[in-house]
Design goal:
This protein is an alpha/beta fold. It has helices at residues 10-22, 34-44, 62-73, 88-96, 114-125, 133-143, 152-162, 167-174, 178-191, 202-212, and strands at residues 2-6, 26-31, 48-51, 78-83, 103-107, 129-131. The protein starts with a strand and ends with a helix.
Length: 213
């Protein structure tokens, strides 16, 4: 089997290459960013790609997006995602590509045996699907109504945010302190999976989630 590895951590990248070679597979390229992954996969046309999710330059979802590009061009290309994270935005789309054939998603810290990893890659290259149960659990949770996670009080607070109310106004409406309102809002952000990096927009994103529901 001819494999391309995409992983920004040099030691892990080289370790994976050595592991696969030890089991008789040919690593035709190992790269450290998503742009290089797309380039070498197009040029070398491997049987399978092993890719991380977060890679340079943004360390967000570059690996998954590169995999989607490659699968769109070659639906038969096997892709095994090996990551510390479940990147929910594109993970479901990747798992749906090619009707789910030849796709895998494993979490690095849950792979307990090197042969287990190699066997998973072989199954994926043969058209199978291998997905860590934790990945499935997180994707299913995301597909449920996110507002189901909120308490009745948190839903009240979110409804008032959707009306454009400031924290002081919400506190007067609910007859609570502003500190209590701030705590409810922090809980809302956490339960809706709105990261601190989006702090300036989290109220807007929370309102959009409320309106969609």
């Amino acid at each position: 089997m001819r494999v391309v590895i995409a992983e920004d951590a040099v030691l892990l990248r080289e370790g994976l290459a050595g592991l696969l070679q030890r089991f008789g597979h040919e690593v035709v390229a190992s790269v450290g960013d998503a742009e290089a992954l797309v380039e070498v996969a197009r040029e070398l046309r491997p049987d399978a790609v092993v890719t991380d999710v977060r890679m340079p330059p943004g360390f967000t979802d570059e690996g998954l997006r590169a995999a989607l590009v490659l699968r769109a061009e070659r639906p038969e290309l096997a892709v095994l995602v090996l990551s510390q994270y479940v990147e929910q935005t594109y993970a479901a789309e990747l798992l749906d590509s090619g009707r789910g054939a030849g796709i895998g998603y494993l979490l690095k810290d849950r792979v307990g045996d090197v042969r287990e990893f190699v066997d998973a890659l072989v199954r994926v290259a043969g058209g199978g699907t291998v997905v860590d149960p934790e990945v499935v659990r997180q994707l299913l949770r995301r597909r449920r109504d996110p507002l189901e996670r909120l308490t009745p009080r948190e839903q009240e607070v979110l409804a008032l945010i959707a009306e454009g109310r400031a924290n002081a106004s919400i506190a007067r409406e609910l007859v609570v302190t502003e500190a209590a309102v701030a705590k409810h809002i922090a809980n809302i952000f956490a339960k809706l999976d709105l990261p601190p990096a989006a702090d300036g927009h989290r109220r807007v994103l929370a309102v959009l989630a409320y309106l969609r529901s």
